[in-house]
Structure formats: structure tokens, C-alpha cells
Request: fold
Amino acid sequence: MKEPKPPKPRQPAKPPRNPHASVLGKGPYKPKVEKARDAYARRPKHQKPPDGEEADG
Reply:
């Protein structure tokens, strides 16, 4: 029988893609900054249809 291969050495962990994720509040990343109340907020261009009426389609 073949001898089993030795385990590969572990790679260093990559930093997560989203530095604002809630789990990272304790790490080397900046916590999410609160925006000003009058800051521009993205809004959807189209409103969702109300439940029940045209949702059957």
C-alpha cells in the first residue's frame, strides 16, 4: 500500500473581505462609522408591489 502523504502546512489566514462585518469589531479593523442623519441614502427606484394583489402572477 502507498504511504499516506504528510499533511500540507497551513496557509496564513486571509483577512475577511468585509472589514465592516460585525464580527470584526474586536479586530484590527475600524468599526463601522455612523453616517450623518442628512447623509444621502440609497433608495430603490421601484416600489415593491403590495402583498396579495399582484403577487399571484
